[in-house]
Design goal:
Blueprint lengths: L4 E2 L10 E6 L2 E5 L5 E5 L5 E10 L2 H14 L4 E4 L5 E2 L10 E3 L12 E7 L2 E10 L3 E4 L12 E10 L6 E2 L6 E9 L16 E2 L2 E2 L12 E5 L2 E5 L4 E5 L5 E11 L1 H14 L6 E4 L17 E3 L17 E5 L5 E9 L3 E4 L16 E10 L3 E8 L2 E10 L25
Parallel strand pairs: 1-6
Antiparallel strand pairs: 2-5, 2-27, 3-4, 5-14, 6-12, 7-12, 8-11, 9-10, 9-12, 10-11, 12-14, 13-14, 15-16, 17-20, 18-19, 20-28, 21-26, 22-25, 23-24, 23-26, 24-25, 26-28, 27-28
């Protein structure tokens, strides 16, 4: 353990507690937009920011003492959204804690803290853990009753902005804390295991927007322009525009929040490609179809070109009214129909058309190595993700199933 002191005043949950998963990617981008990438981190690093308010003179004194004596040190801070409570008493001289560890950042060799107050706590190191208990490296010094709060301990350094206390009265004050994880060689770090949907062996971001926040889309195509008095010469660097998308949504439930974290770990931030629907009605269906159908009737015609590519070879996401998603490749197209690479595997009636969506499924990559989980409560978080399309969209997928998860040996282009 590398923490030399602790900051234990809990957050003011009227403000968000933000936990960031940080990957790092080295990228060399050519003038035409193609890139070569290499991972610099093998596991994500964490940072956390939150607002704390002192309610008493004792808490304010505690906070000032910690900042004066330890602002330059590695501090231990509970990872507040990962709270778990003891399900049974932990007796003194025992090393087993009974609690729920699932979807939380407990790790072998890392410290955990049993917390009852800013001056009433005990820290131990994890020797091993399962879904329902933690075994500590050493026995507890004190007894802790059932219901005691237990947290993973984030060991990190404060930013300089986290040293300014704003006092509301002569006894209270507030502090905006930002703490970034420091390396501890004794911790066996792990990444979250992604168990979500894949298509062609590539993860799919299947999050469905609730439209409380708009989907932002913009196009990027850098150019060099030289101009005279009346003439200009413009050279476009990319063969086709890059589509930039920003998607924001809410997750409620610890498992759902951590599934997003697992997705981000699977693509290692901005390193690997993944699939994302456009969530716009790119293809309008004229009629329903059966589970064994490969030809879909369309209304309003079909755009002859998209992203610089003929639509043949592009990929579609079919979103059913019940939330089921099916992914298929366009193998042929006509004015009033498209042919899919294989049967949909699920029927859609004509009456369900207004509630269904057919949109392009794009190969994209995150534009950031950081995923921010902004917790409004311990199990509810708002999330945003920005992404950009890859120029190579014509990836051949050989389907082996007709479910929303399609398994193949295809890999994404870099």
């Amino acid at each position: 353990m590398i923490a030399e002191d602790y900051l234990l005043i809990p957050p003011d949950w009227k403000a968000e507690v933000k936990v960031r998963r940080i990957w790092r990617t080295a990228a060399q981008r050519s003038v035409t937009g193609k890139s070569s990438r290499q991972a610099l981190y093998s596991v994500p690093h964490l940072s956390m920011s939150y607002r704390l308010e002192t309610m008493t003179a004792d808490e304010t004194d505690y906070l000032r003492r910690r900042l004066y004596a330890s602002m330059h040190k590695v501090l231990g801070c509970p990872l507040w959204p990962d709270r778990s409570d003891l399900t049974s008493q932990a007796a003194a001289d025992q090393a087993i804690l009974a609690l729920d560890t699932t979807k939380r950042h407990f790790e072998v060799g890392a410290p955990v803290i049993l917390l009852s107050g800013i001056d009433d706590y005990e820290v131990g190191l994890v020797q091993s853990f399962s879904d329902s208990q933690i075994v500590l490296e050493e026995s507890l010094a004190s007894a802790w009753p059932a219901g005691t709060e237990v947290y993973p301990l984030l060991q990190g350094s404060l930013t300089m902005a986290s040293t300014r206390i704003v006092s509301d009265t002569d006894e209270t004050g507030g502090l905006d804390v930002e703490i970034t994880e420091e390396f501890d060689p004794d911790i066996t770090h792990r990444v979250e295991t992604f168990s979500g949907t894949t298509y062609g062996g590539i993860p799919v971001l299947t999050v469905q927007p609730d439209w409380s926040s708009p989907i932002e889309q913009s196009h990027d195509r850098p150019s060099t322009r030289t101009a005279g008095l009346w003439e200009k010469n413009e050279s476009w660097h990319y063969d086709e525009p890059t589509l930039l998308m920003m998607l924001s949504w809410w997750e409620t439930g610890r498992s759902d929040v951590m599934e997003v974290a697992a997705f981000f770990d699977a693509v290692m931030g901005g390193l690997r490609a993944f699939w994302a629907p456009t969530w716009h009605g790119d293809i309008r269906l004229a009629d329903g179809f059966g589970a064994d159908d490969t030809e879909l009737s369309i209304a309003g015609g079909l755009p002859s070109e998209w992203q610089g590519n003929d639509v043949i070879g592009l990929h579609l996401a079919i979103v059913y009214p019940d939330g089921t998603m099916v992914f298929r490749q366009i193998s042929d197209a006509a004015t009033d129909s498209i042919t899919l690479s294989s049967a949909t595997g699920k029927a859609l009636s004509a009456a369900e058309l207004p509630q269904a969506l057919v949109c392009y499924l794009l190969l994209v990559r995150s534009t950031s190595d950081v995923l921010e989980l902004a917790y409004e409560a311990e199990e509810t978080a708002s999330i945003s993700m920005s992404m950009e399309t890859l120029q190579a969209q014509l990836v051949t997928i050989t389907s082996t199933t007709t479910t929303t998860t399609t398994t193949t040996t295809t890999t994404a282009p870099e």
